[in-house]
Design a protein that fits this description.
With 210 residues, the protein is of the alpha/beta class. The chain has 9 helices and 7 strands; from the N terminus they run βαβαααβαβαββααβα. The structure holds adenosine monophosphate.
Length: 210
């Protein structure tokens, strides 16, 4: 099975949801740059204060900050099955990643823009365990409460319609070129990210076992 995996795709394509399942069922360790940055913001660290300015505007946090943060974590984790969610997001980040990890496969989840806006604006997140929900497609069992850890769910500051549109623009400009980058290396698998959560997961699992 492939054990060094990147999840690619626009914000709202289901990376976080699928990453949770892959960790539960396949024993992956997940590194999510978004989760790490939001934790730094909540803890009021220097990194968090700096990152928040970019995140609230739907812009990318500068490459040097992200690359430093991720390279250290990846080295620390060593030889575990590893799943990267939200990194790399630029060619520069992908080049830096190549110096610390050999990517086995880049899984790209393909979803239309209209669907993405709906998913993001109706997304609710857990501040403690980072589980993600959707008001209609994946509601929690008890309204406003995380199924996993019972924390109160919240709407991310950057999941409002105006910021979402900017995040999609930034995705197209900075991250979309990675599809070609991993495609040329023969490492890209594109999966249609619509349908049931389990149906999409089944396709990802098949790609990892191929
Ligand atoms: P996400 O949770 O992956 O949607 O990320 C939320 C926000 O964190 C993004 O809109 C960026 O501002 C920032 N961010 C996350 N990952 C990266 C990255 N690899 N490079 C730059 N900024 C990032």
């Amino acid at each position: 099975m492939k054990t060094k995996v990147i999840l690619l795709g626009p914000p709202g394509c289901g990376k976080g949801t699928q990453a949770e399942i892959m960790c539960d069922r396949l024993g992956f360790r997940k590194l999510s740059t978004g989760d790490m940055l939001r934790e730094a913001v909540r803890n009021g660290t220097e990194l968090g204060k700096e990152a928040k300015k970019y995140m609230d505007a739907g812009k990318l946090v500068p490459n040097d900050i992200i690359i430093g943060m991720m390279s250290e974590k990846i080295r620390e984790l060593g030889e575990v099955p590893l799943l990267l969610d939200g990194f790399p997001r630029t060619i520069e980040q992908a080049d830096a990643l190549a110096t610390v990890m050999d990517v086995d496969v880049a899984v790209n989840l393909d979803v239309s823009d209209a669907e993405l806006v709906d998913r993001l604006t109706k997304r609710r997140s857990c501040p403690k365990c980072n589980s993600v929900y959707h008001l209609t497609n994946k509601p929690p069992a008890k309204k406003g409460v995380c199924d996993r850890c019972q924390s109160e769910l919240y709407q991310r500051d950057d999941d409002t319609e105006a910021t979402v549109k900017n995040r999609l623009k930034v995705y197209r400009e900075s991250t979309l070129p990675l599809i070609d980058y991993y495609g040329k290396m023969g490492k890209l698998v594109t999966i249609e990210g619509v349908g049931t959560i389990d149906g999409i997961y089944a396709k990802i699992e098949k790609a990892l076992k191929n």
